Amino acid sequence: MVHGPEMFSWMKILFPLNRSLSGEGNRETLRYLQTLVPEMKIGEFKSGYSAFDWVVPHEWNVKNAFIERIDGSRVAEFSDCNLHLVGYSVPIDKIVSKDELLKHLHYVDEMPNAIPYVTSYYESNWGFCMTKQAFEKLGEGPFRVFIDSSLKGPGEGGVVNFGEVILKGKSSQEILFSTYICHPSMANNELSGPVLSIALIRQLSKIYHHYTYRFLFLPETIGSIAYLSENYEKMKVKTIAGWVLTCIGDKGAFSYIPSRLGNNYADRITKEVLSSIVPDYVTYSWLDRGSDERQYCSPGIDLPVCSVTRSRYGTYPEYHTSLDNLDIISEDSLEESLEFLSHLVKKIESNRVPKSKILCEPQMGKRNLYSNTSTAQSYTAQTKRMIDTLSYLDGTHTLEDISTKCGIDMKQINEILEVLLHHEIIEI
Ligand SMILES: [Zn+2]
Fold first, then answer.
1. Considering 101, 130, 152, which residue would you say is the last residue of a domain?
2. How far is the CA of 258 from the centre of ligand 1 (A)?
3. What residues have CB less than 8 Å from 414, skipping those under 6 apart?
């Protein structure tokens, strides 16, 4: 089991990086995650690539940015906090009046000590964000606005990166976990998803699993759209359940956001597991969605994907501001969330329903599964486990039911099933 403090230590390292839809901060993030999970592949979509109705944007990088008063004092320095700069700001070095600057300034009236998170991905623009307290001390100007950023387009090597981890199981049927890597210095609505995904991968890679697991680390919206445009045909055939992981590291109650149709396998398992471990969880409607479940569940794509958060995006005051920082993350909450995800996986792995293809007890001796010479010694514990398991293969008992009824652990049941499948005695 990965513990809360370890996940939190990964968050601390990732927190300062300047993530966005693209750029060096995203690659640094993915490279760091790759040190934790070497199975991770870092992929890319070229700027200008058409994905359904969208075009992959330019790659954005920033060296420095600030607002400078005439006396040389600076405010809203990017090097102090990357949230000071509006995401995807174009380069500029210009003296502007206060009126002109105000058209490009953002702060939150109700939260005087919060820097808001603002982006302008698809409209060429520039801007700065600051606390209301800082805004009130700004002075009258004029001001020098300086942004040393670059935007690399098609043909200039611009790319949007993503991470992908595929943990192959016995079956080609897949479970999907998707999270995003596009918010700069924010903790719950960003880093909680990737670190929990990494912790879950580490756990899964150490245990037997029947299903194949696909973990995605994408910039939100354009990342999942571009990924789906390349993969949705095979994902539609293979995916039996999936979850979007975000806002899952704070102390809030567990919250469930259903899929668009609300009744797929992921929905059912989520409700079952939440009811059994945290019955007071919050249920939202599909209309409260806000992350990549929008893409996975869009008409025609309709993958069986829902979402589980702690405090849902948009419902907690720190959301999309500099106050969504490491202070609102709890190591215990991270660990509880990982336990919840482990339960989901356990449930899905043990929810398979095997059925015998043979009426009456199969003759095991002719398949060399029992000794044909019947002695007291030939009836081993393993033989008993196999016969006990067989006796419940009526197509109504899940592996979990059989495990409980027969007192056999899941690893042993899986081994028995492998043998029975190999001899074509059962179907699942
Ligand atoms: Zn967000």
1. 152
2. 18
3. 208, 210, 399
- If asked whether residues 84 and 225 sit together in one domain, one would say no
Residues surrounding ion ligand 1 at CB below 5 Å: 189
In the reported structure, the alpha carbon of residue 95 is separated from the centroid of ligand 1 by a whole-number distance in angstroms of: 32
The rounded Å distance from CA 121 to ligand 1 centre is 13
Ligand 1 center from residue 315 Cα (angstroms): 12
- Find the CATH number of the domain harbouring 96: 3.50.30.90
Same domain, 253 and 279: yes
Q: Domain residues for 93?
A: 59-152
CA-closest candidate to residue 67, choices 38, 102, 35, 33: 102
Q: How many domains does the chain have?
A: 3
CA dist 41 and 167 (Å) reads 12
Same domain, 99 and 170: no
Q: What is the pLDDT along the chain (428 residues), one digit of tens a residue?
A: 899 999 999 999 999 999 999 999 999 999 999 999 999 999 999 999 999 999 999 999 999 999 999 999 999 999 999 999 999 999 999 999 999 999 999 999 999 999 999 999 999 999 999 999 999 999 998 999 999 999 999 999 999 999 999 999 989 999 999 999 999 999 999 999 999 999 999 999 998 899 999 999 999 999 999 999 999 999 999 999 999 999 999 999 999 999 999 999 999 999 999 999 999 999 999 999 889 999 999 999 999 999 999 999 989 999 999 999 999 999 999 999 999 999 999 999 998 888 999 998 888 888 888 777 777 776 788 888 888 898 899 889 988 889 989 999 888 888 888 888 888 898 87
C-alpha of residue 8 to centroid of ligand 1, in Å = 20
Q: 287 CA distance to ligand 1 centroid (A)?
A: 17
Distance CA 132, CA 111 (A): 7
Shared domain for 317 and 240, answered yes or no, is: yes
Specify whether 365 is located in the same domain as 418.
Answer: yes
> What distance in angstroms lies between residue 189's CA and the mean position of ligand 1's atoms?
6
Instruction: Tell me which residue of 178, 154, 182 sits closest to 50, measured CA to CA.
Output: 154
Q: Name residue 51's beta-bridge partners.
A: 54
- The alpha carbon of 194 and the centre of ligand 1 are apart by a number of angstroms equal to 14
One domain, residues 43 and 175: yes
Q: How far is the CA of 183 from the centre of ligand 1 (A)?
A: 7
Measured in angstroms, how far is the CA atom of residue 321 from the centroid of ligand 1? Answer: 10
Residues 50 and 69 in one domain: no
Q: How does strand 159-167 pair with strand 41-46?
A: antiparallel
